[in-house]
């Protein structure tokens, strides 16, 4: 890794805490990722991106800012990145997948709260995330009570623009969401000082759709048995998709897919043919949270899809590209984003239908529904997931966990028992 | 054919040597080294029977310490092993309630020893053998005396499920002059309530076997039967269900050698 200390210092990072984070990340990455067998060569790019996660990409963001560009941070797949892109800004997904800055976060947050919320607050208050420190504006949403209230606190430390995400999908909710997207466009224009035109928006939609198409192509390839790529690698790509340069990322995912197509033709894979195939569903797994996928894939199974925000929910629907006027395009964007099946909606039948259809498409043997502790929407919705899967006789394992590692052995016991159960069916 | 099942639990290690319908067992504390406890239990078992390692066709390890046993042919989770062992101990059992040293679980089976669904407690020790040990210590009693001490007593309400909080709750109940027996009865009921709630989510079994070390506690069993609304059965070998299941699976599944260890 090149020496980026000067840059980190100028960003105001707490170098001591940051050093500790950087000390943990590479060995974890080594044991979780580099130990995998038969990895596609195309993963080299993504390994590099991770090795430079707080280096080269941060430098690119600084260069962008030096040239007058803006960087906008977000935590949710509801934030329409096309708009930021059309205004010449860069949108980055913010860090929240590791226990960090807990003591600082607990100064402003209750002790028992979703680890993702505690993590982003810890990152900000502990000054350990160079992405966070590169953002002059953060976009929040009202997808859960914990985040909604935490954004009020976060606003003390960085300006937060909150989008009101509706909780139902009726016509009046669609109208509300459209107005929120329009307001966001105005806010981004004001913040960046750039007027969004029909042309810049058309291009932004095209670029973002191209990224989504590449990710969809990757996911289609996972239908094959043996799976040509591991679930861990796909999750990593999905995590990186939220902060990497869009056209470069798209090209790299497509190059990887070219390689995987050859693999599929040759019948090569990362797991043995007939290995148990599982769908991972539930709350997002933000970088560097790889705990559960690692347990699953070191127990002999292969993950064939992530029905998560770090997964299909991020790239499943495309924005229709037919819009002529800026207004039509903004409407198309609002429509696309409201189709996401987040557990903040009631009812959220679309998610149940999707998990069931996905299990068929991917020839999955079972579903692991993994929820972060204290995440009420997903924890309660586990009951609906269970009901839908039972109706379709699809085996399900529910897990509830956080970013700590101390329950890895217990999770492994549950996962192994689930696999032993599948083997015996 | 000789097979061995070794269940290395967080508190106790159980090993079963099986040959046809004959079997013998060794039970010893796990202590701080699951690997050593497993090896010693295995050696002791072989010594008792006058056998060598090579006389044993297959060794299956289970329990939380299964991953640290270098001499086994296959590691199988305690969930699968308990289901199989329960079928052996109680023909037709379709639910197993297992309360061990550091976790509790409910397993729904097909009545023939195969797992259909299961649930486990969270990562804390609430409602487990360790929980009972901590409470017993706070009351100046041995965990084996708890059932006798609570016999016939009206249970007090214990609101804390967390081991640490329940301990301080017990101490404050003692300070208020509440009888030990009532407190222990309350603790037994709280353990039973917790597991019963887990069982309710899976769907009730018709014939329930209670296994694991806590099955030796008659007080917990009584409350469990009451909460589940049906008899839960404990057999003298209940604590051995995991090791027995492992020895049976070692005989029935084709895991023989090749990849010793995992």
Automatic annotation (TrEMBL), chain A:
Belongs to the FldB/FldC dehydratase alpha/beta subunit family. Its EC number is 4.-.-.-. The keyword Cytoplasm does not apply. The lineage of its organism: unclassified sequences, metagenomes, ecological metagenomes. Keywords: Lyase. It comes from anaerobic digester metagenome. The keyword Lyase applies. One of its GO terms (molecular function) is lyase activity. This is Putative enzyme. InterPro entries: FldB/FldC_alpha/beta, YjiM-like.
From TrEMBL, chain B:
One of its GO terms (molecular function) is iron-sulfur cluster binding. SUPFAM superfamilies: Actin-like ATPase domain. Its cofactor is [4Fe-4S] cluster. Keywords: Iron, Iron-sulfur, Metal-binding. InterPro entries: ATPase_BadF (IPR002731), ATPase_NBD (IPR043129), CoA_E_activase_dom (IPR008275), Dehydratase_Activator_Redct (IPR051805). It holds the Pfam family BcrAD_BadFG. Residues 4-250 form the ATPase BadF/BadG/BcrA/BcrD type domain. NCBIfam families: CoA_E_activ. This is ATPase, activator of (R)-hydroxyglutaryl-CoA dehydratase. The lineage of its organism: unclassified sequences, metagenomes, ecological metagenomes. The gene is hgdC.
């Amino acid at each position: 890794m090149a020496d980026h200390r000067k840059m980190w210092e100028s960003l105001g990072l707490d170098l001591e805490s940051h050093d500790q984070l950087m000390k943990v990340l590479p060995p974890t990455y080594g044991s979780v990722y580099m130990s995998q067998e038969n990895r596609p060569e195309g993963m080299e790019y993504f390994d590099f991106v991770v090795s430079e996660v707080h280096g080269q990409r941060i430098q690119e963001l600084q260069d962008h800012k030096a040239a007058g560009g803006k960087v906008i941070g977000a935590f949710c797949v509801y934030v329409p990145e096309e708009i930021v892109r059309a205004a010449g800004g860069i949108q980055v997904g913010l860090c929240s997948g590791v226990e960090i800055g807990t003591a600082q976060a607990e100064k402003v947050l209750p002790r028992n709260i979703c680890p993702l919320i505690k993590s982003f607050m810890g990152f900000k208050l502990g000054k350990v995330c160079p992405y966070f420190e590169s953002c002059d504006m953060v976009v929040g949403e009202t997808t859960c009570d914990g985040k909604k209230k935490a954004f009020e606190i976060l606003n003390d430390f960085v300006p937060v623009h909150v989008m009101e995400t509706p909780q139902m999908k009726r016509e009046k909710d669609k109208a509300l969401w459209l107005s929120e997207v329009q307001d966001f466009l105005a806010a981004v224009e004001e913040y960046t000082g750039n007027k969004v035109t029909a042309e810049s928006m058309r291009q932004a939609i095209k670029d973002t759709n191209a990224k989504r198409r590449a990710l969809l192509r990757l996911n289609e390839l996972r239908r094959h048995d043996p799976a040509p790529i591991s679930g861990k690698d796909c999750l990593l790509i999905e995590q990186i998709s939220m902060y990497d340069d869009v056209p470069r990322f798209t090209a790299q995912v497509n190059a990887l897919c070219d390689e995987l197509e050859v693999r599929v033709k040759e019948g090569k894979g990362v797991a043995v043919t007939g290995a148990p195939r599982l769908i991972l569903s539930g709350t997002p797994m933000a970088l560097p949270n790889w705990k559960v996928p690692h347990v699953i894939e070191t127990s002999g199974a292969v993950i064939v899809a992530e029905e998560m925000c770090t997964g299909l929910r991020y790239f499943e629907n495309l924005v229709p590209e037919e819009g002529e006027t800026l207004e039509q395009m903004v409407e198309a964007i609002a429509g696309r984003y409201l189709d996401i099946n987040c557990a903040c909606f009631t009812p959220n039948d679309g998610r149940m239908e999707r998990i069931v259809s996905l299990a068929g498409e991917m020839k999955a043997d079972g579903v692991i529904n993994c929820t972060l502790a204290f995440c009420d929407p997903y924890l309660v919705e586990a009951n609906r997931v269970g009901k839908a899967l039972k109706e379709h006789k699809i085996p399900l394992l529910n897990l509830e966990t956080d970013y700590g590692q101390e329950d890895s052995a217990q999770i492994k016991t549950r996962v192994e028992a689930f696999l032993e159960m599948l083997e015996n069916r | 054919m000789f097979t061995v099942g070794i269940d290395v639990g967080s508190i106790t290690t159980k090993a079963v040597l099986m040959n046809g319908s004959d079997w013998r067992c060794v039970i010893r504390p796990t202590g701080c080294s699951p690997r050593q406890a497993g090896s010693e239990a295995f050696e002791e078992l072989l010594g008792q029977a006058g056998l060598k390692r090579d006389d044993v066709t297959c060794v299956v390890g289970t329990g939380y310490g299964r991953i640290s046993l270098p001499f086994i042919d296959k590691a199988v989770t305690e969930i699968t092993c308990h289901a199989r062992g329960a079928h052996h101990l109680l023909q037709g059992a379709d639910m197993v309630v297992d309360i061990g040293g550091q976790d509790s679980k409910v397993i729904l089976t097909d009545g023939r020893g195969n797992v259909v669904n299961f649930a486990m407690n969270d990562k804390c020790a609430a409602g487990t053998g360790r929980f009972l040990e901590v409470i017993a210590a706070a009351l100046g009693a041995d965990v084996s005396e708890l059932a006798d001490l609570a016999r016939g007593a009206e249970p007090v309400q214990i609101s804390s499920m967390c081991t640490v909080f329940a301990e301080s709750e017990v101490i404050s109940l003692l300070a208020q002059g509440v009888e030990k027996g009532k407190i222990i009865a309350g603790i037994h009921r709280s353990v039973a309530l917790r597991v019963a709630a887990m069982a309710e989510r899976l769907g009730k079994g018709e014939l329930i076997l209670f296994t694991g070390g806590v099955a030796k506690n008659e007080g917990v069993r009584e409350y469990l039967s009451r909460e589940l609304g049906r008899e839960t059965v404990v057999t003298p070998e209940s604590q051995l269900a995991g090791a027995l299941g492992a020895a049976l699976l070692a005989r029935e599944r084709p895991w023989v050698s090749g990849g010793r260890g995992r």
